[in-house]
Amino acid sequence: MKLYYAPGMGSFVVEAVLAELNLVCEREIVDVAKHAQSAPTYLAVNPRGQIPALVLDDGTVVTESAAIALYLAETYGKGLLLPPAGSPEKASLLRWLFFASANLYEADLHYFYPHRYTRDKDGADGVKAAAAEAFHRACDILEAALGEGPFLLGESFSIGDPYIAMLMEWHWDKPQLFETRPKLARLHAAVSSRPRLAALWAENF
Predict the structure, then answer these.
(1) Number of H helices, E strands in the chain
(2) b/e code 110-145 from CB counts within 10 Å (16+ = b)
């Protein structure tokens, strides 16, 4: 397998899963400072120009960080990082993983790249403000759903935890974010200090 990655990007989640499962994977950095994600060579791998992308040994390309994490855990996890198939815990994990992908991740993209989401040359500020509101609404829904933790599924660490922690880390004002969301703050702290992930976290953030 070959992972295309860049520090601080969504590839952190995939690297976290690889680290937790002790999997060896070829890695190639995509130099975003030089806009390598828009180069024809990378667009041939991922036409959207997004990071990460995972190329399997048979040449199959998997994109979307949540999808890659889920694939790796199901294929190589041997019961780690995922609850049993058909269990209520698995259903809950999938619910919140896809919720985070569709709401938190998309709000982040709208906040940091508002010009991509409007044709109005003066509309970027409005897109950014709406994205911040949407992100916080989604955080409040997730905060209300979390239990005693420290993780998404209580004491069981899963692929959902590095994904959500990464999205929290990208927030533009974490003290403000966590002021009224102690459960999300707790999850973020538990992931960033996890022994197998601490060095990777420092490398990315």
Answers:
(1) 10, 4
(2) bbeebeebeeeeeebeebbeebbebbbebbeebbee
**Residue 84 CA to chain centroid, in angstroms?**
22
Type of residue found at 22: N
- Which residue is associated with the tokens 């906040």? 111
Task: Name the helix (H) or strand (E) containing 100.
Answer: none
> Tokens in use for 67?
């999808």
C-alpha–C-alpha distance, residues 118 and 56, integer Å: 36
Q: What is the 3-state secondary structure (H, E, C) of 29-53?
A: ECCHHHCHHHCHHHHCCCCCCCCCE
Helix, strand, or coil (residue 26): strand
Summarised one tens digit per residue, pLDDT across range 16-41 is 999 999 999 999 999 999 999 999 99
